[in-house]
Amino acid sequence: MDKTSPTAARAVADIEDGASLAVGGFGLCGIPSTLISALYRQGTGSLRVVSNNCGTDEHGLGILLGAGRIARVTGSYVGENKEFARQYLTGEIEVELVPQGTLAERLRAGGCGIPAFYTPAGVGTPLADGGIPWRHHADGSVAIASPTKETRTFHGRDYVLEESITCDFALVRAARGDRHGNLVFDKSARNFNPLAAMAGRVTIAEVEELVEPGVLNPDAIHVPGVFVQRVVALTERQASDKHIEKRTVAA
Fold first, then answer.
1. Fold for domain 8-115+164-240?
2. Which residues touch 75 (CB under 8 Å, ≥6 apart)?
3. What is the pLDDT of residues 203-219, one digit of tens each?
């Protein structure tokens, strides 16, 4: 039952080229930065990533993106990452944009074994009708466009069918975790992390504080250990390495 891995490098060692990854975090909040850095140093490429966004140009998934290691992204927005936008518009990467709530539910459904579900989000738009560019040619023309999705009417309202998401691996970051893989997230870092953890066939969690089994209050656990296969305890320096996406000052 002891799921701890001695290093981040050991934990991600079997993630091969072309693997699919569900990655937690929102912007730079709650991102598994240590695991991402280990994957970068390992040199793994052609990754198919499912994440709300791709970090920034210098942090999070942005370091894999900048190195040309990501082949496809399923996410909600391009955000502050200019390199992400450049690669998408020049045909270097395939991008499937998904409404944020729909993306969250696709991950949750995948973790629950639900193959698909109907949602009103996107009905009457190109999301349902098809035609959204997934990949461009180098000249900017559309190489691959999104397909038309099935729609049905329930109780007089139209809904679009969305398929769930599961991935080969999931990378998440938790505030606390135990050796059995039970995880607790802190405040807004509890964003896409629990959903990503559920959707991975092999889920790897980096934890800021590792505790012994039984220490965590069962009622406070956000992701039970059944969803987690590997746990990496962060050093004090790694745990405090958190970047701010946008700095502001009060008037």
1. Glutaconate Coenzyme A-transferase (3.40.1080)
2. 49, 50, 51, 52, 53, 54, 95, 96, 97, 98, 103
3. 999 999 999 999 999 99
